Amino acid sequence: MALAQRLRLLPVLVVVLAAVAGPCTGAGAGAGRVDLWPMPASVSRGRQNLYLSRDLKLSAAGSNYSDGRGILKEAFQRMVAVVELDHVVNGSYQGLPVLAGVNVAVRSPDDKLNFGVDESYKLTVPATGNPLYAQIEAQTVFGALHALETFSQLCSYDFNARLIELRSAPWTILDRPRFPYRGLLIDTSRHYLPVPIIKSVIDSMTFSKLNVLHWHIVDEQSFPLEIPSYPKLWNGAYSYSEKYTMDDAIDIVQYAEKRGVNVLAEIDVPGHALSWGIGYPSLWPSATCKEPLDVSSDFTFQVIDGILSEFSKVFKFKFVHLGGDEVDTNCWTITPRIKTWLIQHGMNESDAYRYFVLRAQKIAVSHGYEEETFNNFGDKLDRKTVVHNWLGSGVAEKVVAAGLRCIVSNQDKWYLDHLDATWEGFYMNEPLTNISNPEQQRLVLGGEVCMWGEHIDASDIQQTIWPRAAAAAERLWTPFDKLAKNTRSVTARLARFRCLLNLRGVAAAPLAGYGRSAPSEPGSCLQQ
Predict the structure, then answer these.
(1) Which DSSP letter does residue 31 get?
(2) How far apart are CA 51 and CA 156, in angstroms?
(3) C-alpha closest to that of 54 among 110, 23, 96, 117
(4) For a Cys-Cys bond, which of 76, 130, 391, 515 suits 419, CB 3.0-4.6 Å?
(5) pLDDT at 111 exceeding the cut of 90
(6) Is 444 helix (H, G, I), strand (E, B) or coil?
(7) Which string of DSSP letters, residue by residue, matches 168-190?
(8) Catalytic position from the list 74, 242, 326, 349
(9) DSSP per residue, 383-437
(10) How far apart are CA 73 and CA 145, in angstroms?
């Protein structure tokens, strides 16, 4: 997206949060309030406090899942780590009810992270029994991962007892996502993001149950990813160190998949591709007019085919994103040989643009992908295409009316680089606005918040993403009738979740003010 369209710098606005009471403790801490984020579909609780055993056990009685890849075991270990938060747990359990462990029963033996995989779960925490075990039931291991995250939010460190406390047992939580696609875009072309930073973003996504990392890998500014079949594309990287090998990409994909997050790879063609020509100048229309890619050259499409062939070995998600937005076709008409080609083929600029997008789409389909695009060429698009709506309101309803699937990311509400876009706007942005037909509603796969990278890098990406992305995450996860109609009613709960992110090492910014704002004065994170 063009910088002028995406970035509006305004003075910092200080907003006073609604009154927030109580410490940043477990989900039952607020009087009468369930402090879980995102809010589950169904929750009931009691009044009993439990204490987690120092040797909390993971068991799998009644499970059909062998956990051969260690997905569940590692998730359980991570859950314990974010609950303990490096505190010393050395209090006495004398006379206290102790939760001995968590039993996880997964019905499916399969752990392939297909799009639309069943992510539902049931979590119960009893108040009585000997020994006491929490129980997780899920169709797939990925539902179990969400259950462990919810369980972690029930727990907190008791500074008086020096133990991990779980308040308000017994708990019964039934939960499933509202939409199958709940995404976050990161941009590694405008600024390089080191692999550990990308992994930290993936970890933070799991805390609010986002499940698609849209990796906008390359753009006109840089081409950081190795493409073995066309190695000179790497010449478009910013520097010798700001690169990703294919092994890095495999590592990122596998890291994400073990956390229930798919990685959607993107190359943005035919515009946004100037960096391609640094290694292969023949991809440019000319040495003085370098964008969009040369529509008249078969070599252009050979390179796209090579890239997508390499992608198919690494990025196993069923979708690939080919961009297709903001194409200035002027270079095609002022370059004599391309102008001659257009005339020979009976095309004007718009025809050539459509030709390029549809030919690239056919290449993607040939590699087993279903394509996402920022464009909508109506009945010309393959019916498996997913249209990614970034423009604004009114687009999604037209897309689904045409029978195509849609993902919502309207820039006025869900662009994180719009620092003046408040969390309240993120929360209230409804993907199904003006879409009342049930069949058309099912064509809206979900939505995605976009962290475009012109003005973020490793130093500030997390505080620009969070907590605003979490507001959208609840919109995409929680049943519509459970969503707040007024953001004031969720302010205290989101403030607690923001504090929880900080406790877990995620640099989430205060709720008050615009995106990425610093605290306005000393005080509790719950009141900022």
Answers:
(1) T
(2) 10
(3) 96
(4) 515
(5) yes
(6) strand
(7) EE-EEEEE--S-SEEEEEEETTT
(8) 326
(9) TT-EEEE-S-TTHHHHHHHTT-EEEE--HHHHBTT-TT--HHHHHH--TTTT---
(10) 10
For the sheet with 121-125, list strands across it: 42-44, 171-175, 121-125, 132-138, 98-106, 48-59, 163-169, 155-158
CA dihedral 68, 71, 77, 80 (to 10 degrees): -140
From the CA atom positions of the chain, what is the Rg in Å? 24
Rounded distance between C-alpha atoms, residue 348 and residue 344, angstroms: 11
Dihedral pair phi/psi, residue 3, rounded to 5°: -60, -40
Q: Are 144 and 134 in contact (CB under 8 A)?
A: no
- Token pair belonging to 25: 């403790």
First to last CA, the chain: 31
Cβ atoms of 152 and 141 within 8 Å: the answer is: no
pLDDT in tens, 24-58: 556 765 446 899 999 999 999 999 999 999 999 99
User: Which residue do the tokens 């129980």 mark?
Assistant: 135
Instruction: Work out the angle at residue 148's Cα, subtended by the Cα atoms of residues 143 and 150, and round it to the nearest 5 degrees.
Output: 95
Work out the pLDDT band at 12, boundaries 50, 70, 90.
very low
Phi and psi angles of residue 276, each rounded to the nearest 5 degrees, phi first: -60, -35
326 catalytic residue (yes or no): yes
